[in-house]
Design goal:
This protein is an alpha+beta fold. About 35% of the residues lie in helices and about 15% in strands. It folds into two domains: about 130 residues, Alpha-Beta Complex (Aspartate Aminotransferase, domain 1); about 240 residues, 3-Layer(aba) Sandwich (Aspartate Aminotransferase, domain 2). The protein is built from twelve helices and 15 strands. The structure holds pyridoxal-5'-phosphate.
């Protein structure tokens, strides 16, 4: 019978990660123009909600991703909330979302007064499963004059929010197909997948609108920050308006035409972001090299597999993930203990959303795949700093 040798796995992760005494899960690196741009920003006195770096950051993002508009904002959670509002999600409606995601995805739905409706994940991509999505809509979806209703709760289903887990694209073709069949807008939670692409198209360009995060642990950081991406000119105008207090432009008058938010990204943060974005290609190249190292170091070890990018995808490998074989799922916690003990920061997946007190009574379909995955996921050190910069 195959055995599960924790010491051997820890040694292999160590071999893939390198020698430092303590390796965090994901640390930022400021090896570019960060200090120069921050000083320039301070000297300009425009450190807050107005300034050149914000529009520079937005246009750098839009052109890197290949989208018409990028609107910077205060964080990824706020970006998601505004995306939902912009596609028409309202109070007492439902939004379909995976249960295997970070809390921000579900919370943003609560912020607009709507209810998350959890659908299962696919075991290869760790993202929303289009087949489970289709089955679920078949079971509870009811076409009515006002849109799609959940026949069980009577509430309107207003949107679908797939998330590209740990930087791997979800089965987005299938998800878009089902969404199209039901006439539901897709909001991509692309917080973890800046720089990821699927069939040559960037994550964040598939839905009607997408949200990014630039939190300190993401592939590119602004300290804290987020962005909204869309090709839709009118939607872009509206989200910019919503995130900037819905103020009507005027030389001196204070006039606002709806309840907007102060969700602006400060110029200081955008200055950091411009310097970070300049390094994105290098970060991705190094992160893909780390993944390759791990893949080689862990090859053939009994009891685990390394999560690799799906077919047709180019993942940013934001986090590197071990998946323990089902028969050794009870070894997850001992493995987490051993890795952390060895100075290799390791973390499980997030507790599933439908198991959290606030979301336990939300509607959901079968979630056996998410439950099985959650019990077996271990994330390991993944900072770009683990690899030297490419020569030249
Ligand atoms: C990081 C993250 C967010 C947004 O996080 P902020 O900290 O608010 O920027 C949203 N969804 C997912 C899946 C994330 O990983």
């Amino acid at each position: 019978m195959a055995s599960f040798d924790i010491e051997q796995i820890v040694a292999a992760v160590r071999a893939g990660a390198g020698k430092a005494d303590y390796l965090p899960l994901h640390e930022p690196e400021f090896g570019g123009n960060e200090k120069a741009y921050l000083l320039e920003c301070i000297d300009s006195t425009f450190v807050s909600s107005v300034g050149q770096f914000v529009s520079r950051f937005e246009s750098m993002l839009a052109s890197r991703i290949g989208v018409r508009h990028a609107v910077a904002c205060v964080n990824g959670t706020a970006a998601l909330q505004v995306c939902l509002q912009a596609v028409g999600v309202r109070r007492d409606e439902e939004v379909i979302v995976p249960s295997l995601t970070f809390i921000a995805t579900a919370n943003s739905i609560s912020y607009v007064g709507a209810t998350p409706h959890f659908v299962d994940c696919d075991p290869l991509t760790l993202g929303l499963d289009p087949e489970r999505l289709a089955e679920r809509l078949q079971t509870i979806g009811e076409r009515s004059s006002g849109g799609i209703r959940n026949a069980k709760t009577g509430r309107r289903i207003a949107a679908i929010v797939p998330m590209h887990t740990f930087g791997h694209p979800a089965k987005i073709d299938g998800i878009l197909k089902v969404a199209g069949d039901w006439g539901l807008p897709v909001v991509e939670d692309a917080a973890e997948s800046l720089g990821t692409s699927y069939r040559g198209k960037a994550a964040g360009t598939f839905g009607r609108v997408a949200a990014l995060s630039f939190n300190g642990n993401k592939i590119v950081t602004t300290g804290g920050g987020g962005a909204i991406l869309t090709d839709d000119d009118e939607l872009a105008r509206h989200v910019k308006h919503l995130t900037t207090t819905a103020k009507i432009p005027h030389r001196w008058a204070f006039d606002h035409d709806e309840v907007g938010y102060n969700y602006r990204m400060p110029n200081l943060n955008a200055a950091l972001g411009c310097a970070q974005l300049e390094q994105l290609e290098g970060f991705i190249e190094r992160k893909r090299r780390i993944a390759k190292h791990y893949q080689q170091a862990l090859a053939g070890l009994p009891g685990i597999r390394f999560v690799v990018e799906p077919e047709h995808a180019r993942s940013n490998y934001w986090l590197n993930t071990l998946l323990i074989d089902p028969e050794f799922a009870d070894q997850r916690d001992p493995l987490l203990d051993a890795l952390n003990e060895a100075g290799l920061m390791a973390r499980p997946a997030w507790k599933l959303m439908h198991r959290l007190r606030m979301y336990a009574s939300c509607p959901h379909g079968l979630l056996d795949v998410s439950e099985d995955l959650e019990a077996r996921i271990v994330n390991i050190p993944s900072s770009a700093t683990l690899m030297p910069k490419a020569a030249g």
